[in-house]
Amino acid sequence: MDIFKAKAIVTIFGNPVELILLLLAAIGLGFAIAWTYRKTHRGFSYSQSFSTAIVLVTVITAFIVALIQNNIAAAIGIFGAFSIIRFRTAVKDVRDVAFIFFALSAGLAMGLGSVLPGILGVGVICALVFILHKSNFGGLRRLEYVLNFKMNAKDHSNDVFKEIMVEYLKKQTLLNVDAKERGTVLVFTFNVSLKDGDQLSEFINKMSDLEGVSDVSVVSSKNDLEF
User: Fold this and answer.
1) Is residue 49 part of a domain?
2) Domain check: are 187 and 94 in the same one?
3) Positive or negative: CA dihedral 180, 182, 185, 191
């Protein structure tokens, strides 16, 4: 009886040791994909739960593919169960969809036992993601931040903040000047690049200390921001 049980387990799951090794490999690839996602993410919409989901999707996909690989009945049952699931989570970034497909592909490779091609594929794609990230591929501008601040119209003079900008900024482009409160307050928007990224807080403090300047804020311009 025990022999028949063992055969049934092998029929459904394949070699248990091989399955465990494939799942461990899937976990490793899932962590690699999640780490790449975290290191190359830009903007304010980063989610720790999404990074966790990347790892889980990789492992779960590998397990499901390994489970149904040689069992048609199991495949029909699992796909029938998935057909009643409705995913209603809104994806904030199109890039997140690409990483979900990335995780699914890695899981499929591990589930099918294609360990070496899977590892090589993940390595190449992760390297490509870093290259695209470092080169700011697809970006309209290479400047780093959008600077906003208010200034009293009576104190308005480029010389007031020009000295500080020359000291801290490598590049600056005036995007917009808007008059508020019946023209008594001017709102400036600059696209800027710092000489030293570590001096961002110091630069903001210097700007805030200027007479007539208030509400200084800096946001990343490496995403789809509207001015």
Assistant:
1) yes
2) no
3) positive
Residues facing residue 148 across a β-bridge:
189, 217
Hunting for tokens 């890039």 — which residue is that? Answer: 95
Residue 60, both tokens = 């779960």
- Do 111 and 150 share a structural domain? no
**pTM of the predicted model as reported, rounded to 2 decimal places:** 0.60
Question: What sign does the CA torsion over 37, 38, 39, 42 have?
Answer: positive
Q: pLDDT for 152-170, tens place per residue? A: 877 666 567 788 888 888 8
160 and 121, same structural domain? Answer: no
| Amino acid in position 112 | L
Q: Provide the domain count of the chain.
A: 2
Domain boundary (134, 166, 189) is at 134
What strands, in cross-sheet order, belong to the sheet with 145-152? 169-180, 185-194, 145-152, 213-220
Strands, E assignment, the chain: 145-152, 169-180, 185-194, 213-220
pLDDT value of position 26: 95
Q: How far apart are CA 113 and CA 20, in angstroms?
A: 11
More confident call, 80 vs 130: 130
Query: Is residue 29 within 8 Å of 119, Cβ to Cβ?
Result: yes
51 contacts 38 by C-beta, under 8 angstroms: yes
> Domain of 180: which CATH number?
3.30.70.260
Query: Cβ of 58: how many Cβ atoms within 10 Å?
Result: 34
Strand partners, 192: 145, 172
Measured CA to CA, the distance from residue 106 to residue 174 in angstroms comes to 45
| Residue type, position 68, single letter | I
